[in-house]
Amino acid sequence: MAKTFFIRTFGCQMNFADSERIRARYQKEGWQEVAGWHQADLIIINSCIVRQSAENRVYGLINQIRQSGRRPKIIVAGCLAGWARRDPRGKNLRQLQRRLGSDVAIIPNNELAGFEITPTRQSHRDGYAYIPISNGCNHFCSYCIVPYSRGREVYRPADDILREAHCLLSRGQTWLMLLGQNVNSWQGKKPIETFPQLLAAVAEISGVEQIAFLSANPWDFSDRLIKVIASHANISRQIHLPLQSGDDEILRRMRRGYTSQDYLDLVQKIRQAIPDAQISTDIIVGFPGETKKAFQNTIKVCRQVGFSRAFVARYSPRPGTLASKIYPDDIPPKEKKRRWRIIDKMINQDQKIAR
After folding, report:
1. Above 60 in pLDDT, residue 354?
2. Is residue 8 assigned to a domain?
3. What pTM does this model have?
4. Dihedral (C-alpha) 20, 107, 30, 33: value to the nearest 10 degrees?
5. In this predicted structure, what is the pLDDT of residue 43?
6. Could you say which of 101, 137, 205, 245 is the most buried, measured as most Cβ atoms within 10 Å of its Cβ?
């Protein structure tokens, strides 16, 4: 009888793409996937650590498994594992092991399944087949745990990416999404050296109906990238461009590297070249030092841009980040929730009704 496994994935599209490769590895080794953890001999938890609420879901699931009386093998993978294993002092690993127990293995995604494994594709709500082109981030925004959990940026060679795109097309998957924590900072070798060149190369493959990318950041959104999007009708006009805050002092504290006016100027450039572009975004409310005036500045920028959608998060200190070390978490939870509701209603609810 085949050994059984179950994967529970938390977090972003990158984690879902990682789970597709992890799934393929275990299937290749003869394991059979089951629909629920109650039937599994092995449970793999692909974790997210971007916010405390995401981290708490991992602990909650493990407690639920233990309370069931079953004793399957458990692997905690994903960003929580990466954060623990990348700490050179071992403090994070020891802390997490105490929290989880010695019977839980802690293994980062890249150790479970690397880019060399052909993924077992799943159907995604957005309709795209995911193609990771890079992993990690070099930018160290003050609130962000990603450089500590996934490490510095590692880029897949362009030939591998194009080969995967051709493979997907041969299987009838014609909507593709290029993924990276900072996707537009991708670097390659001649003749495809930059992200705009890579995006154009994928868009020009015969049979690609639509190509999208996630997540781009303002500091690498070049004029060349705008031109490539504008000149290829099959590149998605839904552009995700994280703002995080509309207040310049908060942006400085976040180490975002741009001002609110820089962001507005970039949006104007995009819309001049791509009139049908729809801009979605990420926003953090309740960041340390976010005064009422600073929050109003964010509202002002949101109104000026007219976002099609916003992923709004309440600030949560992440261990090891600069913000957690130097800024007190001084906005009360009740006020964070109030600000979250205002932004969410303004962008995600009122506009939905209007549309």
Report:
1. no
2. yes
3. 0.93
4. -50
5. 97
6. 245
CA distance 131 to 146: 19
Contact assessment for residue 248 and residue 259, using Cβ atoms and an 8 Å cutoff: yes
**pLDDT tens profile 207-228:** 999 999 998 999 999 999 999 9
Side-chain-side CA neighbours of 29 within 13 Å: the count stands at: 14
User: Does residue 325 lie in a domain region?
Assistant: yes
Q: How far apart are CA 249 and CA 77, in angstroms?
A: 36
Number of domains the chain contains? 2
Together in a domain, 90 and 135: no
What contacts 151, CB < 8 A, 6 or more positions away? 82, 86, 135, 136
Which residues, including other chains, have CB under 8 Å from residue 307's CB and lie 6 or more apart?
Answer: 279, 280, 281, 347, 351
Compute, in degrees rounded to 10, the torsion defined by CA atoms 39, 41, 47, 52.
70
CA distance 282 to 241: 7
What percent of the chain has pLDDT above 90? 89
Task: Please give the residue range of the domain that contains residue 86.
Answer: 4-112
What average pLDDT score do residues 63-71 get? 91
pLDDT tier, 246 (very low <50, low <70, confident <90, very high otherwise): very high
206 falls within a domain: yes
Q: Which residues of 200-212 are buried (b: 16+ CB within 10 A; e: fewer)?
A: bbbbebeebebbb
* Summary mean pLDDT of the chain: 94
Decide if pLDDT at 124 tops 50.
Answer: yes
CATH code for the domain in which residue 85 is found: 3.40.50
The rounded distance, in Å, linking the Cα atoms of 286 and 284 is 7
With the C-alpha atoms ordered 141, 17, 228, 272, is the resulting torsion angle positive or negative? negative
| Count of alpha carbons within 13 angstroms of residue 49, beta-carbon side | 25
Residue with tokens 């879902």: 16
